[in-house]
Structure prediction request, 217 residues.
Amino acid sequence: MRIVLLGAPGAGKGTQCKRIVARYGLMHLSSGDILRQERAAGTELGQKAQNYMDSGALVPDDIIVKMMASAIKKTPEAGLILDGFPRTVNQAVALDESLACNGRRIDAVLNLRVDDPVVFERLTGRRSCPQCGAVYHVKNLKPKVDGRCDNDGAELIQRSDDSREVVTNRLKTYRLQTKPVVDYYKKNNTVYDIDANEDADHVASLVFENLDALVSV
Ligand code: AMP
Prediction:
């Protein structure tokens, strides 16, 4: 089973991926997480990606396609959920071509739909732990001690691309470059449109309703 998870920034892709992985045992590959790890490690790839990420633009297709092809190659046969990739039609075509070479395809596409005010509220209030990656929210998911991670006490940080200005750019980029990917998949794949404006539990129940029919739990 190979699933692509699409949605604007702040749609809850990362949150839903964790739940999907826990329920179906799929391998989670997030292009944003891989890029952040590359940056933290100071690699050449991380340095190349830095300015694009900080301004809310997309990292060029050739860099991303190469990075994700290598990550996908390392995944077991069991199954895969792709989060944040593909984000352009060129990336989607490259992914289809590389899967087809091995007789594989994308089995389902989940499209999380969310309204802009919800995106701003979620992203500008998001805080995360630099050590364990746990995610919090200043209003909706507060840590037990203000500003500190419940797991390891580390000081929580705000992602540099979660400022209002950069979120505005990320939404523009999404509309221009990533929305067409939904239409691309609608031509040849099963696409499930999911209302992702409500809380994470509710969205997960909608996701599971669709995926239970496809994946054996
Ligand atoms: P995310 O964590 O998925 O919101 O990604 C954070 C940033 O990483 C994005 O704003 C882009 O700059 C970059 N990025 C992540 N995935 C991709 C992709 N598939 N194509 C191009 N840039 C990406």
Q: What stands out?
A: The chain has a mean pLDDT of 93. Strands lie at 2-7, 27-30, 80-83, 108-113, 126-128, 135-137, 191-195. The two ends are 12 Å apart (CA to CA).
